[in-house]
User: What shape does this take?
Amino acid sequence: MSTTERTDEELMSLLSEGRDHALGVLVGRYQQDIFRFCVHYVKDVERARDLVQETFIRVFTARDRFDATRSFRPWILCIARNLCLNELKRKKTVHMESLEEYASAAREDSGELTRTGADNPDQQLMEDERRRAIERALASLSDDAREIVVLRFFERMAAKDIAEIVGSTEGAVRTRLHRILKSLRDKCQPIWDEY
Amino acid sequence: MTYHDDEQMYDAMIDLAAGRLDRAEAKVLERRIDAEPALAQEYAGVAVLVRDLESYGDAMVASLPEIDVVDAVTSRVAAMEPGDMKMVPFATVEKPRPRMGAWAAAAAIAAALIAAVWLGMRESDQPPPQDLARPLTSHDDSPLQEVESPHIARVDTVEAGAPATPGGEPAAPQMPPTAPDADELSMLAKHDITADAIIEQRQAAARNDEEARNVLARWAALSPENARSVLADTDVSTDAIVGAALSLGGADAAPYLQDAVARNPEDPYLNLELAKATGDPTKPELDEENALGWYVYARQMLSSDPPNLSEALKALETAKSYTKAHAYTLEAAQYHEQALIASGMSEDAARLAAAFTSGPSEYNEMVALGNDLLSYAQYFQELGDSDAALIITESVQRFGEQLDVGALFSHERFAGLELQDTALNFLETMYGGERTESLVQNMEAVAAGFNRLVSFIGNFNSFLTQSLPNDLWRFVADIILQQGDLQIFNNLPQTPQE
Assistant: This one.
């Protein structure tokens, strides 16, 4: 079996045995995910790119601490998250700017709206209004609440994995998620009713 | 499929709407949704939300550039020295596991050191330092363990009685100067206490002269008689009245604080102190930059009879969204200065006394607040409500982080680190002794924070033991009373940084 066909956990085992080439495979496999994840926190492409590197360096130095019976992805995301939070703390601004604000700025710069495949103006208007409603609703959330939403819906993570990343329990994450989504629904309902 | 609670089923509905639910489970859930109209309505809302959120997220992600850091990472790894190559694991011991790993040992050393060297500045409001250093959990009897690791904070300890040089090496022990009788000194009337005398005592305190610390604390304290005398004087400033009232505290302070709030209804500090004096609910929304009021409010809700858990959890949820917290040490010190002037101390002496004794009582309050909340977490854990226990404990950890970030004074930062330390201990217990990666990394960060604070205190004391012109002492006091002691080195050129 070639290295690239191995699972993440098998690659970590190889890494802890001194087969450093396994790291390159993991980097190639996860770099975009970690980059996207870091941008959610630091809202800076260059800094996020640096944090991706730092994350993998830390994966390498902590390779003997990885428990191969557990899932790799939440573990590396937890490392990335802590690096991001430390970075924000270091800059004395502990807040989680959202990816959507970065993308909004990028859209404004480029003069483009996100096209969703709608093929008529009315539908486009509806899509735009719904997107703006989501944007406003997300902006009104606390950093911690928005983090949970980002991990659940943008990163498509299960509650169990989110719990591991943020250092909570599955039950507490589900409870929080339920409350947060209720809040989002209340905020978005008027727009849904109209469109 | 049996769902243990509504939240678990709700979570399954999210996955169903996203098309990620296991086929068998999906069929069962769909049948149930079809059979229960209320559930069908709930699901309809969930489905819309899931669709909007996921498509929104996809659109955002599509705007990001592709990166390629494979070569950068592998080059860095190839260039690493052998000593950098491995993070040595914590020393693991088969059952029974040590309850304090190396990170906590470092934190405890630093905490005890900070407490012994730094605290006890205002005698009237301080328990013995060793009590303050002890974490909430009782399992602190494990042997300290030395672990070699570049990733675990090392405490650069300051030798007792010897100030650290800015380079971190302990200096040769210095004998304190011959001191006059400390009891006689501490009995001086306020108007007899000079600025030079305060400087002398502070310098001695920086050399770990405990008697000097006690003298300074007594000089800066307002006795109840002092305070009442100020309050009865019609010729003093309103700030002096507030300062004197705060030193009395409780019901005695209430009428004066009510007057102060009537004059400044939007002042968050005065409102908070009034709430503490009267027992009325706080108004945490008054300070948009400080989470403290929400934690105080949460404690009030939990301590009501019966405990109002849902209000408390809402308050904690709100509190966690704040960037920072602080204990209003700056405001308290400024009012204290005015009260000392009104009590007969010269302006010069009052400024120095207020500056050099600020912090310990706020430290006490913050740690007590955090420990109270943790005791409620323990209470709910014992009742079987582990979710509430976890939310409260995580909130205390967050409070500690916020204090650390928002601190203007070293005592506030110390309180923040202590609370994080204690909350993380609790979390480890809640996880059944398991150390998740997140827990470990947070613990390491706290240990590093303690290390930095020890270094700052060492540097500050070292600075104060030098022969400084009087103007510089006054300048230092001004900085403390305007910006907090953590800003000292940012305002003094060519001095060691924190």
Remarks:
- Residues 103 and 443 of chain B are 6 Å apart (CA to CA).
